[in-house]
Amino acid sequence: MTEAHAELGPPPPLPKGGLRVTPLGGLGAIGRNMTVFEFDGKLLIVDCGVLFPDVDQPGVDLILPDFSTLLDRLGDIQAIVLTHGHEDHIGAVPYLLAHKNDIPLVGSKFTLALVEAKLAERRITPYTLTVTEGDQERLGPFTCEFFAVNHSIPDALAVAIKTDAGVVLHTGDFKMDQLPLDGRITDLAGMARLGSEGVDLLLSDSTNAEVPGFVTPERQIGPVLDNIFRDAKGRIIVASFASHVHRVQQVLDSAQSHGRKVALIGRSMLRNMGIARDLGFLKIPQGLLVTMDEIRELRPDQIVLMSTGSQGEPMSALGRMATGDHRHVTMEPGDTVVLASSLVPGNETAVFRVINQLSRAGAIVVHKDVAKVHVSGHAPAGELLYLLNTVKPTNMMPVHGEWRHLRAHARLAIDSGIPADRVVLCEDGDVVDLVNGRAKVVGHVKARYVYVDGLAIGDVGESLLTERKMLGDGGFISATVVVDSVTGKVVGGPMVSAKGFSDDPAAFNPVLPLITEALDRAAADGIGDPHQLQQIMRRTVGRWVNDKYRRRPMIVPTVVEV
Amino acid sequence: MTEAHAELGPPPPLPKGGLRVTPLGGLGAIGRNMTVFEFDGKLLIVDCGVLFPDVDQPGVDLILPDFSTLLDRLGDIQAIVLTHGHEDHIGAVPYLLAHKNDIPLVGSKFTLALVEAKLAERRITPYTLTVTEGDQERLGPFTCEFFAVNHSIPDALAVAIKTDAGVVLHTGDFKMDQLPLDGRITDLAGMARLGSEGVDLLLSDSTNAEVPGFVTPERQIGPVLDNIFRDAKGRIIVASFASHVHRVQQVLDSAQSHGRKVALIGRSMLRNMGIARDLGFLKIPQGLLVTMDEIRELRPDQIVLMSTGSQGEPMSALGRMATGDHRHVTMEPGDTVVLASSLVPGNETAVFRVINQLSRAGAIVVHKDVAKVHVSGHAPAGELLYLLNTVKPTNMMPVHGEWRHLRAHARLAIDSGIPADRVVLCEDGDVVDLVNGRAKVVGHVKARYVYVDGLAIGDVGESLLTERKMLGDGGFISATVVVDSVTGKVVGGPMVSAKGFSDDPAAFNPVLPLITEALDRAAADGIGDPHQLQQIMRRTVGRWVNDKYRRRPMIVPTVVEV
């Protein structure tokens, strides 16, 4: 396998007639998917998503791709092709359009509707080009052909990018459910035709490459939900992803056949299902939907609440119901809660916390470990092999996955007969050139995590996150003295205080004389420089806390000169 | 179901002839298992374990049961019965013995050997009574009968506690593998005999109550390991729990049959396997074990490393191999790493981080989602029903589980025919009295989480953890001024600094004049009280940071008087 990482230098100039592929996100972590294609001086971007932070990124709201290599080439960008409407594929579009708001967005009807709703909140009206499966569009030197793919959101597309350098097929996210709810299967036949014409490079979704076998058809979820609806004596609350139109459709259908009414809860659920209905992706039986006010008139066994919060988000509708903080809904014994969603890695603690809170309140909680109330939207190993064997690409690059997924996918590619030296295993920022039918890593560009925290973007970096982790683990102890700026003598303090360190208010008493003593010694040695005094205080407090507590709080010494 | 929680008051005096059962841990979270039984003024404790902290307890090393209700009754404790040698059942023994070191410990040979090794590190030699399945022992007014149970550690026991109030059966942790490696199955026949004599209260392990069906027999793991060993071309590194003697035995056996040598790595692995071998629980073929020095002389395909670190612990042997920080072992393409263990909830992020690091380094990583290299040690729903139907207890109390597990187990008990009002669903600190054959929650005692952080126990509480979370999410901004203690006038500062807030060194410049202005206004209003000045500074900085950043760092104002 061709492997290359950050230790590589910047890439050489792209040879004439070559195609350059630069993943700026999506490789090494699941999220912030973004790939830049360059040909003949022009750029085409596929997807522009966000990554949600995990415990290693405390206090961070979102993680963006690093746009820095694009900023002086914004005018070269022909379009941003969006494969589907999930946040990890469209969430960073507003941040890129903030730099240049007339870059055209290309995608399917539902995808564009979701991104337009998102941009409307920021008062951006984008230039868009709606495409559908089978379409072929020229975007500068790039000719794009679109293929239907089946995923956990409607109207998803794969895209073939054709240039004089060859044909690249980017699957986006996909699975190959052979009995999808909407009958729109992944167009393996179309991709076979493309493969027979020659695919020089395949970029394919690796999320489930470690999982053996094939997905359970979506249609098997419906009967499981029906069973739950039949058995439930009280209210039913279903939580799912706010964009999983087919899962919501199944809940609506079960509610309808069991004589229950449905209220949608959560801002994103309401918005997305409104869009889905308007565009014909969601069929809502007449009179089925009710408002939260109308719900109050119904008996518990007539009620279904369709909510967000399947990932344990504490501020979501379900999260607030679990803690008893929801304005309208208080959990009661006899309620049934269904988490009809996958468990995104990193969210386990939060999700099980919510399940335990709901269980404590008396609800019966059904989740995917207990019953088949959800199937993944990503193709497992068996399906990935079908795709590899059908497309028969000359070169292959696993995308959309953590290292464990990328490597498992690379092994599948090799097992399917692609020579190991044509399987390109990359991480974010690696630059891959396709020249003369051969894909090779040629360099690396900056692809840092760009953190959004509150209103500011990019002022939170790795060293600051290390400080947060240190503060979060051990709190801090601050020590303050006042020195005379002329004589260098201590004229006030030391004052010691701490946060997150100890509940014992007398904890710091023993260290005060130690600081005074150390400062006296410093004065005797003629040391009056504030920086040196701070170091002395830091060392004195640090040694004391280590000896006495074996803890490592942050030590924050301050010298104020008067 | 009888449910009772912390809103209850302290329990009334125990009626004469009644048995009191107080779980001090293990209910509501998996860990720190400890149950106190009281009869006729005497106490018997079953298990005394620790809980490992999760993301909600940053910086905490261990969580202990709250011993406060026991401290003035230490002399009444007849014994601590230890059901098996896992940390969540024995880990808090040293902390309880620190209060009174002659409380007798009762347990099986292997369990006591592990707890003695732990106590030896603290120079405590405990009083012990070794028991084995079938034994019956009088411990004050409590007669204990012991039953073999099968679990993920050898020599585990269930205990029946007989008093004039009735018979209680406490399963400890168990599963009912019908083909265990050591042939020692859970003694369902013995428990059936006990049940036919009458069990008034069953306390039973709820960990897998949500999981349908039955465990896969341990013997099916061996062939899976054998396949991995046959296919591996390079070194094999297996990580498992350091007390899972049978899993290690399977690895030794596979190594032996594939002509590989084994080195044990990690302090606890070496210690526990030494004890297991000495006591006859682990059979090590002659010449199979080698030292890390001897490993260097072998080819990669002759090497097995048996390591700790299956839960993603960064400082464990495997954790350090993954980051390239291990003294002896650097991962290489071709290495195979097997995580032969369950994934303890809360550890997912850490475990997948290690798997990704190993994958990035080129290793093939096999874990339980990919191949059947581990089975749980806890009985799932099918087996719990067998136990319920065999023992036929009059009252039942689910133990050892989070709320979701306890409630699922309660439903199984009711499904098996126990009247709902005889299923006692409790949480830590609830007090259950068994009087005239009827178990009822009668009150609640203190059962706080007691945090160990470094050398100190109990000085870290919930409000302090909230401070740590706030600091960890947003860092802090400190603002310091010096005031004249006589005039109340500001004579130095304001100085502003921050940690974990922003990488921008000029970030605070705009807030300095705002603080000065606010303090000037305060001076004009005659405000000189340090406490009031601190509030003014806190408000000024807090408002500024919210307006400008929409962030909530901790604001730490300091007024030093000179």
TrEMBL record, chains A, B:
<dbReference type="InterPro" id="IPR004613">
    <property type="entry name" value="RNase_J"/>
</dbReference>
<keyword id="KW-0540">Nuclease</keyword>
<dbReference type="GO" id="GO:0008270">
    <property type="term" value="F:zinc ion binding"/>
</dbReference>
<dbReference type="InterPro" id="IPR001279">
    <property type="entry name" value="Metallo-B-lactamas"/>
</dbReference>
<dbReference type="GO" id="GO:0004534">
    <property type="term" value="F:5'-3' RNA exonuclease activity"/>
</dbReference>
<feature type="active site" description="Proton donor">
    <location>
        <position position="205"/>
    </location>
</feature>
<feature type="binding site">
    <location>
        <position position="88"/>
    </location>
    <ligand>
        <name>Zn(2+)</name>
    </ligand>
</feature>
<feature type="binding site">
    <location>
        <position position="151"/>
    </location>
    <ligand>
        <name>Zn(2+)</name>
    </ligand>
</feature>
<keyword id="KW-0378">Hydrolase</keyword>
<dbReference type="InterPro" id="IPR042173">
    <property type="entry name" value="RNase_J_2"/>
</dbReference>
<dbReference type="InterPro" id="IPR030854">
    <property type="entry name" value="RNase_J_bac"/>
</dbReference>
<keyword id="KW-0479">Metal-binding</keyword>
<dbReference type="Pfam" id="PF12706">
    <property type="entry name" value="Lactamase_B_2"/>
</dbReference>
<dbReference type="InterPro" id="IPR036866">
    <property type="entry name" value="RibonucZ/Hydroxyglut_hydro"/>
</dbReference>
<feature type="domain" description="Metallo-beta-lactamase">
    <location>
        <begin position="31"/>
        <end position="225"/>
    </location>
</feature>
<feature type="binding site">
    <location>
        <position position="59"/>
    </location>
    <ligand>
        <name>Ca(2+)</name>
    </ligand>
</feature>
<comment type="function">
    <text>An RNase that has 5'-3' exonuclease and possibly endonuclease activity. Involved in maturation of rRNA and in some organisms also mRNA maturation and/or decay.</text>
</comment>
<feature type="active site" description="Proton acceptor">
    <location>
        <position position="378"/>
    </location>
</feature>
<dbReference type="GO" id="GO:0006364">
    <property type="term" value="P:rRNA processing"/>
</dbReference>
<keyword id="KW-0963">Cytoplasm</keyword>
<keyword id="KW-0106">Calcium</keyword>
<dbReference type="InterPro" id="IPR041636">
    <property type="entry name" value="RNase_J_C"/>
</dbReference>
<dbReference type="GO" id="GO:0003723">
    <property type="term" value="F:RNA binding"/>
</dbReference>
<dbReference type="InterPro" id="IPR001587">
    <property type="entry name" value="RNase_J_CS"/>
</dbReference>
<dbReference type="GO" id="GO:0005737">
    <property type="term" value="C:cytoplasm"/>
</dbReference>
<dbReference type="Pfam" id="PF07521">
    <property type="entry name" value="RMMBL"/>
</dbReference>
<keyword id="KW-0698">rRNA processing</keyword>
<protein>
    <recommendedName>
        <fullName>Ribonuclease J</fullName>
        <ecNumber>3.1.-.-</ecNumber>
    </recommendedName>
</protein>
<feature type="binding site">
    <location>
        <position position="61"/>
    </location>
    <ligand>
        <name>Ca(2+)</name>
    </ligand>
</feature>
<dbReference type="InterPro" id="IPR055132">
    <property type="entry name" value="RNase_J_b_CASP"/>
</dbReference>
<feature type="binding site">
    <location>
        <position position="453"/>
    </location>
    <ligand>
        <name>Ca(2+)</name>
    </ligand>
</feature>
<feature type="binding site">
    <location>
        <position position="84"/>
    </location>
    <ligand>
        <name>Zn(2+)</name>
    </ligand>
</feature>
<dbReference type="Pfam" id="PF17770">
    <property type="entry name" value="RNase_J_C"/>
</dbReference>
<feature type="binding site">
    <location>
        <position position="86"/>
    </location>
    <ligand>
        <name>Zn(2+)</name>
    </ligand>
</feature>
<keyword id="KW-0694">RNA-binding</keyword>
<keyword id="KW-0862">Zinc</keyword>
<dbReference type="GO" id="GO:0004521">
    <property type="term" value="F:RNA endonuclease activity"/>
</dbReference>
<feature type="binding site">
    <location>
        <begin position="242"/>
        <end position="244"/>
    </location>
    <ligand>
        <name>substrate</name>
    </ligand>
</feature>
<keyword id="KW-0255">Endonuclease</keyword>
<dbReference type="InterPro" id="IPR011108">
    <property type="entry name" value="RMMBL"/>
</dbReference>
<feature type="binding site">
    <location>
        <position position="89"/>
    </location>
    <ligand>
        <name>Zn(2+)</name>
    </ligand>
</feature>
<comment type="similarity">
    <text>Belongs to the metallo-beta-lactamase superfamily. RNA-metabolizing metallo-beta-lactamase-like family. Bacterial RNase J subfamily.</text>
</comment>
